[in-house]
Amino acid sequence: MPWMSTLLLFLAGVVLVSLSGVMMPGPVLAGAVAKGCEDKNAGVWIAVGHGLIEIPLILLIYLGLSYIFEVTPVRILIGLIGGSLMIYIGIGMFRIDMNLEAGAIHHSATFIGFVTSASNPAFYLWWVAIGSLLILTSLEYGRLGFILFLITHWLVDLGWYWIVTVSVFKSSQMFGEKIWKPLFILCGSTLVLFGVWFVWDGVRGVLSLLKTS
Q1: Residue ranges per domain, the chain?
Q2: Mind listing the pLDDT tens digit for each residue in 160-213?
Q3: How many helices (H) and strands (E) does the chain have?
């Protein structure tokens, strides 16, 4: 079925865009590094804590804003703002210097995952500007598309934080530059490409409105 192949392509894009977000240095990643020194499987519980705030947020966006996505000016605005932010973050990933230090944290990994996510303003900004675009696209495939998007995104979080904590536990260091750089270049490039795509869709929408006005 043609729609199935495009759905699979979309989910592949979700994996790369999600990686570009989850790999960004921030409080959740720092917490994962710290807990990884104590438990190689801490990443699983970091992802659970992260999901406890993230999944309800996704559902709120889906339930509360899905009807707004049908309004053309809103779609245009989301495309222009979200796409621009994607490009900005993607370009920034080419300049990242991964220099994280691990420290002892006397709380559960689930608690750390929840608190570091809930207290990070960039987390909400990412979902409002970028995540909403992915939700919007997933809705084109119906409820199945949305559910698969939700599962795929969380599994990316789970896989990444588990890899981080296992690596830290075994070596007390993050991956070497030979692995970090290609991953960041790949995800940064993907984010820029998605951003250009969404911005271009927004520009086309503006031009279409101007023609009909």
Answers
A1: 26-90+104-212
A2: 999 988 887 776 555 555 555 665 566 567 768 877 877 888 888 888 888 876
A3: 9, 0
